[in-house]
Amino acid sequence: MRLLKIVLVVAGLCAATAFASPTAPRNGAEYTTLKTPQPVQAQGKKVEVIEFFMYHCPACYALEPAMLEWVKKQGDNISFRRIHLPLTGENDPEAHMFLTLEAMKLEEGLHAKILSTWHVERKRLKSDADNIDWAVKNGVDKEKYTATYNSFAVMTRLKNAGRVASTYEVNSTPTMIVDGRYLTNPTMVDSANPGIPRPQLGAATLQVLDALVEQARKGK
């Protein structure tokens, strides 16, 4: 009888492991559904995907190459954008820099350079002065950058950045929001699938995104 119980327990564990899969994500495991769905900017049949990130975040930097390939692969299926999580609150210099460059329509072109500054050159952009100095050294007009940096529009968005993150129920990075409804991140995928090797966690997270995008498309 004892042997039979052990066999049944082992079989149950094997079945649970087999059921866990990034290609068939489960609500409450590999992803969660937001309590209050948020409006999306994507139009038509495109599915909005938002990546909450931080410039200094090692996990964001590690995911970046695969994420860019994934966005390229999805093509017209999705509308992709980033939101910088304001780690230190209303005066967070990283989020301030992101919002300034985004307002100037320069963030996308400089995104890789900023990440390289943090993670390859190991230079920390931790203050307003650091940000302005970096921007000027990388070809941004100082007067225009400073004016935008201190503009009412950017300061208002910076002040509200924490509220935006809270609305999306985001408290860590990288975290992805699909169609204003579904939230996932590598930590959730790892917890739900403990057998995934660490080097494959990024790919597994993107598999979850694939499934969520398809789920959202079917609901349109």
Automatic annotation (TrEMBL):
What is the first-listed, main subcellular location in coarse terms?
periplasm
Q: Which PROSITE patterns match?
A: THIOREDOXIN_2
Q: Does the keyword Signal apply?
A: yes
Q: Which cysteines are joined by disulfide bonds?
A: C57-C60
* Gene3D superfamilies assigned to the protein according to its UniProt record, in alphabetical order: Glutaredoxin
Going by the UniProt record, its keywords in alphabetical order are: Disulfide bond, Periplasm, Signal
**InterPro entries per the record?**
DsbA/DsbL (IPR023205), Thiol_disulfide_DsbA (IPR050824), Thioredoxin-like_fold (IPR012336), Thioredoxin-like_sf (IPR036249), Thioredoxin_domain (IPR013766)
Q: Where in the cell is it found?
A: Periplasm
Task: Name the GO cellular-component terms.
Answer: periplasmic space
Residues in the signal sequence: 1-20
- Work out whether the entry's keyword set contains tRNA processing: no
Report domain Thioredoxin positions.
10-218
User: Which family, according to the similarity comment?
Assistant: Belongs to the thioredoxin family.
Q: What is this protein called?
A: Thiol:disulfide interchange protein
Question: From which organism does this entry originate?
Answer: Duganella sacchari
